[in-house]
């Protein structure tokens, strides 16, 4: 009798164990199915007729967040991926508040240098197109930390391309730069101007371009490469702006330095290089308003055709010197700024401005916000009302 009881107990234990295994398996299947997913996530995991789902890499950054805002306003579905090393969670929260509807916007905190994470993002989301903004982007910093730039720009772009190919995402709008041209002998710069970058930032971007172009020749992928010039300005309605980390201000763009001087955060503005072969000795640049820049990206997406490769300069076609920029900034903020003149910054070039005729001809795009002072006034309003940028960085678990 004892023997039979033991046999029954063992049989019962086996059945219970089998039931637990089956239950666990069923739970895993349910979690993988759309019906058990986060209600928000399921909207992004499937293609919907008439809905264009755009992955915006670096969408928590200055340019990427403005692009995401424009896409959302125009009815696109947007997924932002950002590791927040340079971006701001505050910008994401503003976009989430503006577009709270299910299936409009999702944010994924991830590093694009992690191949497994990138592949998972593409596997779990049904993207139509990618706007690839994510990149470290300071010329001076690139000369100090070149390997970081090659990893972040070139290697990460390669991972994005591999994931796009693996998951049949066939449209790429690539954020590139005039730094790929280096210091051309002739102005203005056209898309046919030879590319001889002179700093690691420009070299890393050109390498990424070369990889993209070579890959596009072997596939039906649609690629639009936008080489843009010096970006200024902010959202005219005052929702988004430029807010780099405090430790990056030394490497940052001149507009941010002007505003910091105007707000008394720094004692004055440092101008690097006054002995260039230009009319007033300072560098000449083509300053493009961020509103115009994101408009170029949206037009590039709208004109994307299967198998087409498009390369475009995005600028105003007008060169302004650093001294002219500083004077416009003084007028924009309504106060004087102390200016200190220093030696040249490594990796800089004397004169760069665009010939935007190709993008005007092929994409029907022309810069609309070409008054330097007005663009700076709009950006100054945001800076002045956001003394701490988007606030302290948010810790993401």
Automatic annotation (TrEMBL):
EC numbers for this chain: 5.1.3.-
Keyword Transmembrane helix among UniProt keywords: yes
Q: Name one GO molecular function term.
A: UDP-glucose 4-epimerase activity
Cofactor(s) for this UniProt protein: NAD(+)
Pathway field:
Carbohydrate metabolism; galactose metabolism
Matching entries from Pfam families are given as:
Epimerase (PF01370)
Q: Which PANTHER family match?
A: UDP-ARABINOSE 4-EPIMERASE 3-RELATED, UDP-GLUCOSE 4-EPIMERASE
Q: What is this protein called?
A: UDP-glucose 4-epimerase
